[in-house]
Amino acid sequence: MSKVTIAGIIFVHIALILYTLFIIIENRKQKTTKSVLVFIILAVIFDVTATICMMIGTTRTYFTFHGIIGYIGLLLMATDAVLLLKYRSKYGSEVLINKSLNLFSKIAYIWWIIAFITGVLVSLFRR
Fold first, then answer.
1. Which of 34, 53, 68, 80 allows an S-S link to 8, with CB 3.0 to 4.6 Å?
2. What is the pLDDT of residue 127?
């Protein structure tokens, strides 16, 4: 396995930790606090970095089953971050996040976890 792929694996695990912390804090506080926004923004940055590393390190096509699920997961995560930033900008940090935005965050997280798991499975069965 190439060093750039290993770096991608490390970055995606950091994104997993940050994204999980985000979803836990968002569901507990139900507000767009600084910590909620910091965790989602860092998760996006680390996932983008991981995706780039894995694309550079792959010897296969970018459009695999896992790849497509992963790109959609990253897009959902980034969309969630933008929506939360807009929500905070419009309503401030003390207003509770509405149910539809909170539901979107949960769906995006679940999709991202499915993408993460498919990546693990691909790695295990590739050996």
1. 53
2. 60
